[in-house]
């Protein structure tokens, strides 16, 4: 599916017009759960499309995460459209199990995924290149070029680590690692004090992972963060009440969106059982001596810090006016002002479930239907 050079690359005065790449009905950037769900619905609609993924394998973003990671939802409530998880539906799958499920999903539905294709540019095609409607040219670092009437950006919210600015005050003797790069305790130097900064489930799991080695672990966790049980009853109630599916644009949705994300109460309780783990409250500052200041306590001089402080999106490759002044995607339930361009897989794209595995299907069904309804005009 490779094409020739972009039309804009024609040499001035040349009479040789390069042949543009074949026009697809749609192109999906990112073959994670959201992208695969979109591919499922495009396949059902009979559309011509490809999925481009920067990774070397489907599910790589899962398999590359820390060794002890498990899904925060059970298998029975984590399926994509058309295919449930194999095995015990009550289990909480491992990160490698999640990667295998996604790879099996793509193979089962024969989705056209192209790997090692990091997208470097998404731009509007020259006017008249693909009449009568708008089209987009997509380039990858591997030198491939594609054209499509519709583009779905499903690279997700977890792209660039959001490390606080005060981290720059720490000396070079403190190893700093974003949670995206953390795999196992042996990565961190020495056996002295380390810190984990963050108020989410990943922070709790990583802190417990490190505390299990016996070394002192200081956790900069905001203890005002709500905690909920994570069991079959809770998930059944959430599904029955529909709370996870409440749209953000409703009054209840706006209220839920303003609430802090809860953590798993069992993970918090497990961490508290380690005598060598101390919660120091939300981190306020880093000291040049190599210590971290929390609202409840200050750490001793640290050997390493894992920053589990979230991510910010990175869309430098998208050359379209579909972002707000802060660089965030500007969309209405995934649909942008650019004809035929949409986002999927973002936190609260439509509801709380949007960035969860089981929320990928409903969002993809709605977005794909809306995109295909915009016929060439």
Structure, described:
21% of the residues lie in helices and 19% in strands. With 377 residues, the protein is α/β, with parallel strands linked by helices. The protein folds into two domains: 7-159 and 313-373, 3-Layer(bba) Sandwich (FAD/NAD(P)-binding domain), CATH 3.50.50; 161-225 and 260-311, FAD/NAD(P)-binding domain (3-Layer(bba) Sandwich), CATH 3.50.50. The strands form five sheets. Strands 1, 2, 3, 4, 5, 6 and 18 form a seven-stranded mixed β-sheet that branches. The radius of gyration is 23 Å and the shape is globular. Mean pLDDT is 91; it is low at 1-17.
Largest sheet: 7 strands, mixed
Q: What class, by secondary structure content? A: alpha/beta
Would you report the number of β strands? 18
Q: How much helical structure, as a percent, in the residues?
A: 10-25%
End-to-end distance: 26 Å
Give the number of domains: 2
Radius of gyration (CA) equals 23 Å
CATH-scheme architecture of the largest domain: 3-Layer(bba) Sandwich
CATH class of the largest domain: Alpha Beta
> Uncertain runs with pLDDT below 50, 5 residues or more?
1-17
């Amino acid at each position: 599916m490779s094409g020739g050079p972009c039309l804009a690359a024609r040499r001035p005065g040349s009479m040789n017009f390069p042949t543009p790449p074949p026009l697809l009905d749609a192109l999906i950037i990112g073959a994670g759960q959201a992208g695969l769900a979109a591919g499922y619905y495009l396949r059902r609609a009979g559309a011509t499309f490809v999925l481009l993924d920067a990774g070397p394998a489907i599910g790589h973003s899962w398999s590359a995460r820390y060794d002890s990671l498990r899904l925060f939802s059970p298998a029975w409530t984590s399926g994509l459209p058309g295919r449930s998880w194999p095995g015990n539906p009550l289990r909480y799958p491992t990160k490698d199990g999640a990667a295998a499920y996604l790879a099996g999903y793509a193979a089962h539905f024969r989705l056209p995924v192209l790997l090692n294709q990091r997208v470097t540019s998404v731009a509007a095609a020259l006017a008249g290149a693909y009449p009568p409607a708008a089209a987009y040219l997509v380039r990858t670092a591997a030198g491939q070029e594609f054209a499509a009437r519709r583009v779905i950006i499903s690279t997700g919210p977890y792209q660039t680590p959001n490390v606080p600015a005060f981290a720059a005050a720490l000396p070079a003797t403190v190893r700093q690692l974003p949670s995206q790069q953390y795999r196992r305790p042996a990565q961190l130097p020495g056996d002295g004090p380390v810190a984990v900064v963050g108020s989410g489930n990943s922070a709790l799991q990583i802190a417990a992972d490190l505390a299990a080695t016996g070394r002192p672990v200081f956790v900069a966790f905001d203890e005002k963060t709500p905690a909920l049980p994570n069991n079959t009853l809770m998930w059944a109630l959430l599904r029955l009440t529909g709370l996870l599916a409440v749209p953000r644009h409703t009054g209840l949705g706006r209220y839920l969106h303003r609430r802090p994300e809860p953590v798993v109460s069992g993970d918090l309780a497990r961490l508290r059982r380690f005598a060598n783990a101390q919660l120091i409250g939300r981190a306020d500052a880093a000291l040049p001596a190599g210590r971290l200041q929390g609202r409840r306590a200050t750490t001793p001089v640290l050997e390493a810090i894992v920053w589990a402080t979230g991510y910010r999106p990175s869309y430098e490759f998208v050359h379209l006016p579909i972002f707000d002044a802060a660089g965030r995607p500007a969309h209405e339930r995934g649909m942008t002002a650019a004809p035929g361009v949409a986002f999927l897989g973002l936190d609260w794209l439509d509801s709380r479930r949007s960035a969860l595995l089981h929320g990928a299907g409903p969002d993809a069904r709605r977005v794909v239907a809306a995109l295909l309804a915009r016929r060439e005009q």
